[in-house]
UniProtKB/TrEMBL annotation:
EC number: 1.4.3.16
Domain FAD-dependent oxidoreductase 2 FAD-binding, residue spans: 6-371
EC primary class: oxidoreductase
Species this protein is from: termite gut metagenome
UniProt record similarity statement: Belongs to the FAD-dependent oxidoreductase 2 family. NadB subfamily.
Lineage: unclassified sequences, metagenomes, organismal metagenomes
InterPro entries found in the cross-reference section: FAD-dep_OxRdtase_2_FAD-bd (IPR003953), FAD/NAD-bd_sf (IPR036188), NadB (IPR005288), Succ_DH/fumarate_Rdtase_cat_sf (IPR027477)
Pathway membership, UniProt: Cofactor biosynthesis; NAD(+) biosynthesis; iminoaspartate from L-aspartate (oxidase route): step 1/1
Biological process (GO), any one: 'de novo' NAD+ biosynthetic process from L-aspartate
Protein name (record): L-aspartate oxidase
Keyword Repressor in record: no
């Protein structure tokens, strides 16, 4: 069966759903999700989103420089500047779709600080920001009459001239995307979806690692789709490990302990209570993630330990429970009272920095295919 849409969106996290909402007034959208809408990396994100909002102390140049430093100046500065400068407008759009970020008594955003940031600029919703965003976007998507949600559908192959009998190689300069073959997992049938524009928003590859904070659906399917279609992928070796996933043997995925907890005042310690980050970086526990993760890994290997510990016991107990209610409940269910006990943590695969190569407009090396 052949189905036609103006836009075909493969992936249903914040990227896929926000793109669907942005273009839904311009045509019919098919939103493809290989399991259910709730199962996405977005849902598991805790800490929040970085954006310059308090211009009394913060500005775009600070945010850009923080980002370049954290990326060891390997990041494409043009992309960094674009993302940073456009972030406030994207925050406004999320709010227009129903997302609620925490505010203080004056009605201003209650900003957190995370590793690598020189200012407090993290907008959040308690300690489950991703779940708030995912739930709000799901509601907005389901209410839009131009968006067709296809749960339990799996993208099998990108359609190009190859499917019209034309030889396509990596040297072909004008590869075009016409849609995709999609497997309906309930019927077992592969259907043809034709589209004017196709968007790949399938997330990263965390689930190929034994220890990861990602849901087990994060297996890099979209990247593989594009690579098989002779599209260009880039920087696949850059995989970010989050320094502080809750260490609980057998858990997969690992439960994330947000970086915002270190911004709040938590300190990394070894099992004997010794603070160790001062040996590695002057920013201590708020150094960028790669530095902190390597430091933790080094301590674990030198000591023969399975984990290190995050200590927030010196902070006000009521404030800790208020800011991190879900982390408190999760740890308490395992017999850990974070207001009194250290939290066992270890690094876990968290974020793929590489993937499908695109330009500043998100256009891949294949025409009409974006990511």
């Amino acid at each position: 069966m052949i189905k036609k849409f103006d836009f075909l969106v493969i992936g249903s996290g914040i990227a896929g759903m926000s793109f669907a909402l942005k273009v839904a007034n311009k045509g019919q959208v098919a939103l493809v999700c290989k399991t259910e809408l709730e199962e996405a990396n977005t849902y598991f994100a805790q800490g929040g989103i970085a954006s310059v909002t308090n211009t009394l102390v913060d500005n775009f140049n600070k945010h850009i420089e923080d980002t370049m430093i954290a990326g060891d100046s390997i990041s494409d500065r043009r992309v960094v500047e674009k993302v940073v400068r456009e972030a406030p407008l994207q925050i406004d759009e999320l709010i227009s779709w129903g997302v609620h970020f925490d505010r203080n008594d004056q009605g201003e955003f209650d900003l957190h600080r995370e590793g690598g940031h020189s200012e407090f600029r993290i907008l959040h919703h308690k300690d489950n920001t991703g779940a708030e965003i995912q739930a709000s976007l799901i509601q907005a998507v389901k209410e839009h009459r131009n968006i067709t949600v296809l749960e339990n559908h799996f993208a099998v192959e990108i359609l190009t001239q190859h499917h019209l009998g034309v030889t396509v190689t990596r040297q072909t300069s004008d590869i075009k995307c016409y849609g995709a073959y999609i497997l309906n997992q309930k019927t077992g049938k592969v259907e043809t979806y034709l589209s004017k524009i196709t968007m790949i928003a399938t997330g990263g590859i965390g689930a190929i690692y034994q220890t990861t904070t990602n849901p087990l659906v994060a297996t890099g399917d979209g990247i593989a789709l594009v690579y098989r279609a002779k599209g260009t992928v880039k920087d696949m070796e850059f995989v970010q490990f989050h320094p502080t996933a809750l260490y609980h043997s057998g858990d997969r995925p690992s439960y994330l302990i947000t970086e915002a907890m270190r911004g709040y005042g938590a300190v990394l310690r070894t099992g004997d209570g010794r603070e160790f980050m001062r040996k590695y970086d002057r920013r201590l526990s708020l150094a960028p993630r790669d530095i902190v993760a390597r430091a933790i890994d080094n301590e674990m290997k030198n000591r023969g330990d399975d984990c290190v510990y995050l200590d927030v016991t010196h902070e006000d107990a009521e404030e800790t429970r208020k800011h991190f209610p879900n982390i408190y409940e999760k740890c308490f269910s395992l017999g850990i009272d974070i207001t009194k006990d250290y939290i066992p943590v270890a690094p876990a695969a968290h974020y793929l920095c590489g993937g499908i190569k695109v330009d500043l407009d998100g256009q891949s090396s294949i025409e009409r295919l974006y990511a």
